[in-house]
Design goal:
Length: 455
């Protein structure tokens, strides 16, 4: 006898409403606090980019005294939905924000701006914000895991498709909506979601992250006013499973909500360099080989990177012509790290990208997908891994394999590294003293501190 399941939207809504702060293990709350610190930091750095400033100019309600939500790194106050848009765009502008393999999705850049904006609007406590962000993240990652990466492999940009779900769930929790209202909000968020990987290498990527965050806020606010959304948005004949995911969906990941935590497994990957995460494992392997064998750059004949198909698809620019393209270029990431010994925000520079200095090194880097990636399970254990071979001019060859990069959940940044990244992102925008003060306040976010006072 087949047991009929409740609609997935309703199951998510019940979980969001029933979740209590005490249900969330302390390591999970610490994880989301790290996500907040990282996201606010990269958003403040991103606030000075051209694309973030475009978003801010379009947000014409800034500066009004009737609003409470602030934008990261820029003056003025905004309506909650507008702050979510501005901050979501800024958080993703530098492609320096976190990632989760439950859906291959940039989660925090969408969820944190939405939660922050509404928490400031309501003057909620930092602890309530943390609980809401956990609710949003777990809902989004549950759907992402259940999708089994089908939509991502088909060319959908999961941040645009799944982001409104996480943002909406977090806001519903903050607004204390009922199960029925939350289900309606999530239904609205899902049926209105979208995003194509055609945005990669353009302003569209950051702007669509902002729009996903804004959408989550708007859908929750609409439901709070009485708007009704479809409960069959996931399973319906014209719903998520059918249209986005080729008919595939593993409901067991929704069943696991509250007993297993996606923030812990697969966990959150926090970037140490501001380029697509697909570059990181290969770059780490190259640096490891160069350091171990004391390889001089002039002795390198070529560097060959054997990577999964998804890495080849993501890193589409062998010879980037813009900063955004450079962030999706494995040759640029490796050449920059080899020449400078590191990769910071200062290296996202068009003159540097087009310089003879790096073009020569970039020409020695190539990438392909070999038969090793057909081995069962390897793409799961090393989703963006790399097998690297450095060929020297004298015929020597040195090889290394990296399953995951430094900063990934399996090899996380230390607290000191995370703080250092935050200060490197924020100090140029805010100044040293204010940056340290903000870091201290964010470190106490899981408390009774007012969300308005955090910024």
């Amino acid at each position: 006898m087949t047991v009929e399941r409740k609609p997935a939207v309703l199951r998510l809504a019940e979980w969001v409403v029933d979740l209590s702060a005490s249900d969330i293990p302390l390591p999970v709350r610490r994880c989301i606090r790290r996500c907040v610190i990282d996201t606010v930091g990269v958003a403040i750095a991103g606030s000075s980019t051209r694309v973030a400033q475009l978003a801010c100019r379009v947000a014409s309600d800034g500066g009004s005294n009737q609003f409470h939500a602030k934008a990261f790194g820029v003056p003025g106050r905004f309506a909650a939905k507008t702050a979510a848009f501005v901050n979501g765009a800024a958080a993703h502008a530098l492609d320096f924000d976190d990632n989760c393999y439950a859906g291959f999705v940039h989660g925090s850049a969408v969820i944190v701006p939405a939660g922050f904006a509404v928490a400031q609007d309501l003057d909620a406590s930092g602890a309530d914000l943390i609980t809401a962000l956990v609710a949003g993240a777990e809902c989004e990652y549950a759907i992402g895991a259940a999708s089994k990466n089908v939509l991502y492999d088909q060319g959908w940009w999961t941040t645009g498709v799944l982001g409104p779900i996480g943002a909406c769930a977090a806001v519903c929790r903050l607004l204390k909506l009922t199960v029925d209202q939350t289900a309606s909000a999530l239904g609205l968020a899902i049926v209105g979601a979208g995003g194509m990987k055609a945005c990669f290498g353009s302003d569209g990527k950051a702007l669509m992250a902002g729009r996903a965050s804004e959408s989550g806020v708007v859908c929750a606010l609409l439901a709070a006013e009485g708007a009704r959304g479809p409960q069959n948005a996931i399973e319906g004949p014209n719903g998520f499973i059918s249209l986005f995911n080729g008919g595939e969906f593993d409901h067991s990941f929704l069943d696991a909500l509250g007993s297993a935590w996606f923030l812990q497994v697969p966990g959150i990957d926090i970037k140490r360099i501001p380029v697509c995460l697909s570059s990181h494992a290969a770059a780490d392997a190259v640096l490891e080989l160069v350091a171990t064998h004391a390889i001089a750059l002039h002795d390198i004949d070529r560097i060959i990177c054997d990577v999964p198909p998804i890495v080849c698809k993501n890193l589409a620019y062998d010879r980037p012509m813009s900063v955004q393209q450079a962030q999706f270029s494995l040759p640029y990431a490796i050449a920059t790290l080899l020449h400078f010994g590191g990769f910071g925000l200062q290296h996202l520079d068009l003159a540097l990208i087009q310089s003879d200095l790096l073009l020569g090194l970039m020409s020695r880097v190539s990438m392909h997908t070999g038969p090793m990636w057909n081995e069962p399970g390897l793409r799961t254990t090393a989703p963006e891994g790399a097998s690297v071979a450095i060929h020297l001019r004298d015929g020597q060859v040195f090889k290394a394999f990296k399953a995951t990069a430094v900063g990934c959940a399996a090899d996380p940044l230390t607290e000191g590294q995370l703080d250092g990244k935050f200060l490197a992102c924020t100090t140029p925008v805010m100044g040293d003293g204010p940056a340290h003060d903000l870091l201290t306040r964010l470190g106490t976010i899981d408390s009774g501190i007012s969300a308005r006072s955090l910024l």
